[in-house]
């Protein structure tokens, strides 16, 4: 199977989405000149060009794309060629309204924006297959072709009648009999029993709370239905003249798509990452997305999109201050990226994203953004050979599963204050601040190579996952588990005793008497070796063999255990405040033999090892001085370092 290295060679690819169809052809020559000057090696073309290629049903206009592909080839720039299927032309919605998605309330989601397709529509799928086939036939052997890019950020949901039929087929495959579906969904509740498959519908707008197991299965189904669209196009391009790596770009940590499953179906895992420059912890957010993507890829991965400056989808969109784009680009490389690309090359003058930044901004080649882009291009060119393909070692894994997120993020739960991604982020932040590089893993993956595994929150844990965790600890691993983990089984059925019995044995818990979510803003005083605040949640627990590590000292749970350990298995029934979580995980990691990448780091300094290089990344608000034992060579400046590194604001050093 081809991989990212087939596209990169020994380079770190650099570039962005290129939409030449928005510009007169004279501009293309200027584009190429500036691309060459900035060290661009890769452009992603065609992402939203369906109406340009197929102006009327069945017609083809490839002339412009031929010229773009040839132009890029002449200048030695590779093309990541996209199937344009994320944005069907207006004629499709007009002629075939059944291709348009319907919302939960049955209303039509119209064309005039993008991603207006029902993933279950056979008409949409057949037009998508036809254009993909023609693209593959025409460009499958083009010398500029680096990679295939299927669709763009698959993210639609649809509740239409075609979707309902497709959902029923998916359910029949999963459950075989309607009785098994009734059992899995618990339809004895509220008289929801189904007598025939035809009665089953997607969880549409309803009077009151919908069946949670149905909602969970609909999430599973939607991820699978989108994946079918993706693999159908993938199979077409894979069969073309030359086997070229295939990717589809993920949205970061996004609820709609089980990226563990998706990643198995592509040669290259790529992600679009847009941290908020006003978030003081944006560096941590970026690291989390990068760690997650690297883990899905099981190796080098690709930043398909990032912003060169401001985005346009937040209430207030500030540009990146000088140096920040470079810091985040090199951070991605430190955490395993072998390609750093942007949305988009040249800033649009019209359309919905005219305020979204680009590598060449409205200010043009003399603008600050393009000047900084040139610097990033030069840095990546310098690092390419040293870094491409190199692994990022991690001894700690964070477990994450979409199924649990889907079961968790629903109506009618103990607390609407608990947001799964926020809890995961809190734990990743603690490890990031502790200087420990972390992978992400699925709870049923082989965990044997990690010294420490943490579960911020997996409310739903299937039997295989539970057995895996138990076996991991029996095999010598250290496990730390966050509140309410293991409460539900694969079908979102609550486990008797409030937690799976095998897990209760593992953690030394006799019974979970009550879950005790905290009202908005309420915090509990807890103490153990030190006192800290418990956030979001508490539990009324009775231990069996567990040792109490910290105790609640306020609220209704006062006097009860807050944090427990039973040998190498730890259970946190609340979310410790950020400083406490960092200190606790640092201690547990220490006991498990895991040390930070660099001891004695100043606050705001991220240190990451990749291959034989040490990346030092300054996320602090000002300059930093870092002590690094030994003599090194700094690769970006090609200068010697003797024990001390000075980093400007947003500065980076790469030590060999
Ligand atoms: C996504 C899309 C791009 C663009 C950017 C803007 O990542 O894939 O087409 O809309 O967002 O941030």
Protein architecture, described:
The protein has 3 domains: 324 residues, Alpha-Beta Barrel (TIM Barrel); 196 residues, 3-Layer(aba) Sandwich (Rossmann fold); 51 residues, Golgi alpha-mannosidase II (Immunoglobulin-like, Sandwich), CATH 2.60.40.1180. The strands form 5 sheets. The chain has a 10-stranded mixed sheet, with helices on both faces. It contains 18 helices and 26 strands. With 656 residues, it is of the alpha/beta class. The radius of gyration is 26 Å and the shape is globular. Helix 11 packs across helix 15 and helix 12 runs parallel beside helix 13. The protein binds alpha-D-galactopyranose. The site of alpha-D-galactopyranose has 9 residues, from loops.
Portion in helices: 25-40%
Low-confidence stretches: none
- Write down the overall mean pLDDT: 98
The CATH superfamily of the largest domain is identified as: Glycosidases
CATH topology of the largest domain: TIM Barrel
Question: How is the topology of this model organized?
Answer:
Blueprint: H1 4-8, E1 13-18, H2 25-38, E2 42-45, H3 50-53, H4 63-74, E3 78-82, H5 90-95, H6 122-139, E4 145-149, H7 161-175, H8 178-185, H9 212-238, E5 246-247, E6 249-250, H10 259-263, E7 270-272, H11 282-297, E8 301-305, H12 324-334, E9 337-342, H13 368-387, E10 396-399, H14 402-408, H15 420-433, E11 438-441, E12 452-455, H16 463-474, E13 478-481, H17 501-507, E14 509-517, E15 524-527, E16 531-535, E17 537-543, E18 547-552, E19 561-566, E20 569-572, E21 575-576, H18 578-591, E22 605-610, E23 613-618, E24 624-634, E25 639-647, E26 652-655
Parallel strand pairs: 1-2, 1-9, 2-3, 3-4, 4-5, 6-7, 7-8, 8-9, 10-11, 10-12, 12-13, 13-20
Antiparallel strand pairs: 14-17, 15-16, 15-18, 16-21, 18-19, 19-20, 22-23, 23-26, 24-25
Helix pairs in contact: 6-9, 7-9, 11-15, 12-13, 15-18
Bound molecules: alpha-D-galactopyranose.
Alpha-D-galactopyranose (GLA) binds at residues 152-153, 272, 274, 305, 311, 343, 353, 356.
